[in-house]
Amino acid sequence: MSAVAYVAVSPGGRTNAASLYMRDEVTPGLRKLTQAVDASRFLPSRTCSTRFPAD
Questions:
Q1: What is the pLDDT of residue 35?
Q2: Residues in Cβ contact with 19 at an 8 Å cutoff, skipping those fewer than 6 apart
Q3: CB 29 within 8 A of CB 37
Q4: Could you say which DSSP state residue 1 is in?
Q5: Contact between residue 6 and residue 15 where contact means Cβ atoms under 8 Å apart
Q6: What sign does the dihedral 20-22-24-29 (CA atoms) show?
């Protein structure tokens, strides 16, 4: 399971100063994270016995 929580739409909407907020310079990193999660979604988990079918 992967989660990115508390992403604000502006600096003023953050829950604290360290929280992420959307802007052009964070988009490449979020895209890279999304691609990595998507690429690994069918790898067997070491903690879960559920196996997902390949597309």
A1: 86
A2: 6, 7, 8
A3: no
A4: -
A5: yes
A6: positive
The position carrying tokens 């600096």 is: 11
* Chain position carrying tokens 């959307």: 22
End-to-end alpha carbon distance in the chain: 19
pTM for the model: 0.58
DSSP 3-53: -----BSSGGG-SSTTS-B--GGGHHHHHHHHHHHHHTTTSPPSS----PP
Q: Which two tokens stand for residue 13?
A: 């909407």
Cβ pair 53, 24 in contact under 8 A: no
pLDDT in tens, 10-41: 999 999 998 899 999 998 998 898 888 888 77
